[in-house]
Specification:
Layout (H helix, E strand, L loop, with lengths): L4 H18 L6 H26 L3 H4 L3 H30 L2 H4 L9 H10 L12 H14 L9 H9 L3 E2 L7 E2 L2 H4 L17 E3 L11 E7 L3 E6 L10
Antiparallel strand pairs: 1-2, 2-4, 3-5, 4-5
Length: 240
């Protein structure tokens, strides 16, 4: 038979999900719901087309390509517009989808990206995933305590905590991803301004627990070496 839009989309989504799960960053929340709704629509549209085609003669099939495509477009337009409007409405509520697409986290720091990708595969004794509501509350709390910049949790950090609320690892360069409740108060200890700081790690001691209040210490290597990610949305190093 001819290649269906639903089959193409389903193949792309399947491959994407497999890649994200392999790297410990599964699709979840509103994005996953939207994908499921689109798949359901495409499947029902495909089934309707197959029923129509089964009632046609071979002669009718040879001349029906253009009319079937027009019907497919008519069937797709209302549902896709509805999903887009719903997605846009959700984006207006929490400014998530549109704004998180603007920056390109980790592009200028490939070593940091490599670290994040291998965290999920090495996870041991995983905690339960953090609900989106708790992540939003953490973001709001951090924003209230950091003056002079907009705080927005990088998408990869959200995915990390949606995967698990902290876990142990046996990696040479990182030993633990901290549970969210253990990092909730740490960023508030920073004393410097909101300007960028070129940090990937910092060493925690009595004089300088955290270098900057917008940098979130989410992982540790041993007792003193801490990994941070920049949640200052307007910063050049946002998401690094």
């Amino acid at each position: 038979g001819s290649l269906k839009h639903a089959n193409v989309f389903r193949y792309i989504v399947t491959e994407l999900r497999a890649f994200l799960r392999t790297n410990g960053l599964p699709v979840s929340g509103r994005k996953a719901d939207l994908i499921e709704r689109i798949l359901e629509h495409l499947s029902s549209s495909e089934a309707s087309e197959e029923e129509e085609e089964s009632g046609k003669t071979d002669n009718q099939r040879s001349h029906s390509w253009e009319s079937e495509e027009e019907k497919e477009e008519e069937n797709d337009e209302p549902s896709i517009d509805h999903n887009q409007e719903e997605s846009e409405g959700e984006s207006d509520n929490d400014d998530d989808d549109e704004e998180s697409d603007e920056p390109e986290p980790y592009v200028s720091d490939p070593d940091f990206a490599k670290l994040l990708r291998k965290l999920g595969s090495g996870a041991q004794d995983r905690g339960s995933p953090v609900p989106m509501q708790h992540l939003n509350q953490f973001q709001q709390k951090l924003g209230n305590n950091v003056q002079g910049c907009k705080i927005w949790l990088p998408d990869d950090l959200r995915q990390l905590y949606r995967f698990a609320n902290g876990f142990k690892l046996e990696l040479e360069d990182v030993s633990e991803v901290l549970p969210l409740d253990e990092v909730s108060d740490a960023p508030n200890q920073g004393t410097k301004t909101h300007h960028d700081l070129p940090l990937e790690r910092c060493h925690m001691d009595d004089e300088d627990d955290v270098e900057h209040p917008a940098w979130i210490p989410f992982a540790m290597n041993g007792d003193y070496e801490c990994y941070l990610v920049n949640a200052n949305y307007g910063a050049r190093t946002y998401g690094q």
